[in-house]
Amino acid sequence: MAALTPVNPAWVRNTGGAFLERKTHLVDGEAVWYAGAFLKQKIADGLLYEASTSAASGVAADAITHIALSDLTAQTVDTTLVEVGVVTAEDIFEINSKSAAVTRASNGASYGLDVTSHLHTIDTTNATHRVLRVVQPTWAERDFQDNSADTLARVMVRVLAAAIDAQAA
Amino acid sequence: MAATALYYAKTGVMVENSYADLRDKAMDVFLERSAQVPLEGLQFFNKETADTLAFKGTTWSNVLNHPRRLSDTDPRSFDQPAPGYDFSGTIITYSNAVAITDTMEKTDRSGKVRSMMSGLPDSGRSFIEYGCADVINNAGTTAGSDGSYGFADDHYHEDARAGTWSNTESAGALTSTTFDTMRLNMKKRKNEKGFPMGINLVSLVVPLDKETKAREISRADKIPETSTNAPWVWTGVNVIPWRYITSTTAFYGWGDLPPAMWGLHYVVLTEPTISKLAFPSATYPHVKAGWEIYMQVDWVMSQLKNMHRNAGA
Asked: Which of A5, A119, A152 would you mutate first to test chain B, the one with the most B CBs within 10 A?
C-alpha cells in the first residue's frame, strides 16, 4: 500500500475520441489557481473562477465548466485572457481521492469535489453535493503503478452534466 | 623561532626591485616553484555554452506513466512527460595579467623572467577548481533549481505525483555502514514517475581527511570495522579525493547518470584564453612584454541528481 501524492486533475481521454478543447477566457482578477484546477464560469460576470469545494445545496455554485492549463496568480484586473480547457461530459479525468483508498464499490457513484489550498481532489465521503461520477479507480485499468490498497488513490472520473451545465451565479 | 617574512614589492608589472636574487652574480642555480594545480572538481561538471551574460537552462524528459488496459475499440488514453525546472546563472568576466619591464629582463641573471609569466594558465585552472568546489561546499545551504537546497531530503520530482526525493544522508562518520547506506539509498532512488531510475554509486568522493578511510573501504576484502569474516562485496569502489572540499567530515557518492542529469554546470561564454598584451606600447615603451588570462564563466547548480552527501561527523 502506498499513500500517493495528490495533485490536480489530469485529462486522460475523451470517450468520443476528441482531444481537450482549448479556449481563451477572461478570468476574475482575484482568482488564483494551479494547473489542472477545475474552474467555473459565473453567469453574473462571465469570468472564470476556481471551482470550489462542493457544498452548495444546489449544483449551481458547484459548477465545473473548465480546467486550468497553467498556474494563475492574482491579476488584480478582470481583463486578463487565459487559455483553459473546456470540460465536456465525455472527458475522462484522473483525480486523487481526498483521503481513502477507492474500492470497486465506488464505480458509477457520484461524489463532491474538494478544494483545499488550490489542490483539487474527489471527496468520496461527500455524496450529498455531487459533481464527479467515478468511471473506475485507476488501479482497475493500470497495473503495477496503481494498487487497490493505495490511499489518496487515483480515480477516473467524468464531470456530471449537471455541474457542466450549472449556471453559477 | 618564527620564520622571517619575505617581503617583495608588488608593483603589478614585474620590476627588478622585487627580484634581487635573480640579479645576484653569485647565484649558481635557479629552481622553479611551479603551481602544480590539482584538477579534481571539473570532472563533476557538465560544460554548457552560454550566448549571453544571463545564462538560462531547463530540462526535458521522455519519462511516461505505465500503459493502461484498453480495448481495441476504446478511444486512446494519452500521457505526457513532465516539464522541468529551469536554472540560471550570471556570467562574470575574470582577468589576470602579468608583464615585465625592459630593465627586469636585461638585468636578470637567471634567464627565467619570461618563464615567470607562464603561471597564468595555472592561475585560471586553480580558479576554476575553486569555483567548482564552491558549489559543492555551499550546496547544503544554497537552493537549486527546484527551490530545495542542493543536498536536501525534500526535492520535488518534476512530476509531483511521484512526491519527493532525497540526496542527503543521515549524518554519520564515514564507515563501511554509512557508505553502504548511501550506496543503497542511491540505488533505491526513483525517477519522476516513481519508477526505479537505475542510478548506481560508482565513486566515493571525499575530502583528504577521509581518504584513508575511503581507501580502506575500497580495498577491504572483509567487512571493515568488524571482527567477522563476512566478505566485503564493495571492494574496488572508485575513490576520488577532492582537495578543495572545505568540510573535513563530509563524503559524497557519485552516480552513473548521463552528464545532462548531473545537475552541475560549468557555463562558458568565453573559454579561459591567454592573450599577448600589446607591449611595448607608445605610452610604455619599456614594458617589455605582458600576457593576460581572460574568461567569462559561471558555475550553476540545478538538481544534484547524481550526487548524495553525508555531512559526516
From this structure: A5
Q: What is the pLDDT of residues B122-137, one digit of tens each?
A: 999 999 999 999 999 9
- State whether A5 and B160 contact (CB < 8 Å): yes
Fold adopted by B36-59+84-310: phage-related protein like fold (3.90.1690)
pTM over 0.90: no
**pLDDT per residue as tens digits for the range B242-253:** 999 999 999 999
* DSSP letter for each residue of chain A: --B------EEEEETTSPPPEEEEEEE-TT--B-TT-EEEEBTTT--EEE---S--SSSGGG---EEESS-B---SSS-EEEEEEEP-TTEEEEEEBSSS---GGGTT-EEEEEEETTEEEEETT--SS--EEEEEEGGGTSTTTS-TT-BS-EEEEEE-HHHHH--B-
Candidates B70, B76, B77, partner chain A, best to mutate (most A CBs within 10 A): B77
Chain B contact for A141, CB < 8 A?
A: yes
Asked if residue A1 belongs to a domain, the reply is no
The interface pTM score, or ipTM, of the predicted complex is 0.85
Chain A nearest-CA residue for B163 = A5
Q: 215-234 in B: which are within 8 Å (CB) of A? A: none
Judge whether A116 lies within some domain.
yes
Domains in chain A, number: 1
